[in-house]
Amino acid sequence: MSKPIQSTETVDVVVVGAGFAGAIAARDSTEAGHTVVVLEGRDRVSGRTWYRKFEGKEQWIEVGGTWVAPSQQPHVKTEVERYGIELFQSPEPRAFAWGIDGEMSNAAFPIPAAEWPALERAVARIDQDADRIRLYEEPLGQEGLDDLDIPFTEYVDTLGLAPKSRDFILAWPAFYFGAYPEKLSALHVISWVTAFGSCTGWFTLLTDKFVGGTTGFVERILADAGADVRLNTAVASIDDEGEQVRVTTRSGEEILAKSVIVTAPINAWNTIQFTPELPTAYRAMGEEKQAGESVKVWVLVPALETDFYGVGLHTTFKWIASEYTTEDGTYLCAFASAEKDLDATDPDAVEAAVREFLPDAKVLASDTHDWNNDEFSQGTWMAYRPGQVMEYSAGLQVPHGRIHFANSDLASGWAGWIDGAIESGLRAAKQSNDLLGK
C-alpha cells in the first residue's frame, strides 16, 4: 500500500492515521467523490488495534482493542453487516478468582449474602444516574451532569457499601478503563453503564471478536475506500492557510489539501505542530492527557482443565482470563491498570502476577506491546479524568477551520471502543464533506 510521496502534491482530503476512525473517514470521503490520501506513521494499519501472531507461536492474538458488542454498539453492527464480518466468542469461564478486600475468592460470585441488599441499592443508584445520560445525542458533557464528573472513588463512597462490595464495584472500571478508579471521571464510567443497558452489563462479559481480526477488518474498509494509503509516513505539521491546508511529513514532503482529518489519539497530539494553534479544549486535553494506561499481556501456561476468569482490585492484574487452549497450552489475556505496576517484559514479574490468581501456574511464554511508550498512541483507550468531560468533550467535536478530528477518544457514545472510533470517523467525514460541498 505504500509508495513514495512526491513533493507538494494536491488532494481534496488528507487523513492522518489508518485505524478504524481513519479508515471510515477515508471511505466516506471517497464515496463523496473526493480524492483522499491516508498518512500512517506506523508500518501497518489499524492503529490501537493490532491482530498478529503471539511471538514465536502460530496462535493469532489481539494485542490492542478486541471485543465488540454489536447488539449494543450500533456503528459496529452496521459495519459488520456491511462487510459480512463473522464473529466468534471468547470461552465461557467455569472457574473464577476474585481479588477483593485483601482476599482471593474462588466463588462464582464473591459478595456475601449479607451485603446483597446494599449492593442492590448501589446498582439501582448507578442505573438511575446512567439513565440521565443521553448517549449519542450530543457530546458526553451534557447540561446537568456536573455532579457525576467527579473521581469514581468519590462517587462510589457515597453508595454506603461494605469493603468487599466497594472493591467489587471499583474493580470493573480498573480494567475496563485501564486506569486507577480515582483517576477516572464517574460520568465517563457511568456512560458505559448507559451503553450496556444496565449496571449488570459490566458483569455480563463481552465475548464477541472479529474472525480475521481487527487489522483485517480495517484493511477491508480501506480497500473499499480505494484511498491512497501511505505507511511509514509520520506527519510533522499541519498548517491551515485559509483556502488550503499544508500537511508536512517528517521527511519534509508536503501535501496541500482542502480538508484534513486527524485521527491521532489525544495523547499523541503533541507529535504534530498545528498552525494556527489548537482551540482551548484541544490544547488542554493534549496537555493534561487522558488517563488510560493499561498494560495488556498475553501469557501462555500449561493447559488449564477449565476456562478461567479472574478480577482483582489490589492485585497486579485487574483482569485475567483464558482465551485459547491449543496444543501449546492455554493462552491467557490479562490487564494491569498502569505500566508502573508491572514490567511486562520481565518473565518473573509476569509469572508472579499470574500466580496471584492461579498459584500453581507456570508461565511458558508471554507477549505484549507497550502502548504507553508507543509514540503514535502514548497511552491506551480513552479514560476521561475527573472534570474533563464537562469542560472539554463538546469542544473536542468542533472542527478547527479546515482541520477535523476523529478517534475513539472523541466519541459521544462508546468513547474508547471500536464503536466510538467508527462514530467519530463518520462524524468527521461528514463535517469534511459538508465543508468541501460548500
UniProtKB/TrEMBL annotation:
Q: Which cofactor does it need?
A: FAD
For this protein, the record's InterPro entries field holds: Amino_oxidase, FAD/NAD-bd_sf, Flavin_amine_oxidase, Flavin_MAO
Query: Pfam family of this protein, just one?
Result: Amino_oxidase
Q: Gene3D superfamilies recorded for this chain? A: 3.90.660.10, FAD/NAD(P)-binding domain
Q: Do the record's keywords include GTP-binding?
A: no
The cross-references to SUPFAM superfamilies, in alphabetical order and at most eight, read: FAD/NAD(P)-binding domain
Keywords recorded for this protein, A-Z: Oxidoreductase
Q: Where is the Amine oxidase domain?
A: 21-430
What protein family does this chain belong to? Belongs to the flavin monoamine oxidase family.
Q: What protein name does the entry list?
A: FAD-dependent oxidoreductase
**Annotated source species:** Gulosibacter molinativorax
Q: What are the leading ranks of the lineage?
A: Bacteria, Bacillati, Actinomycetota, Actinomycetes, Micrococcales
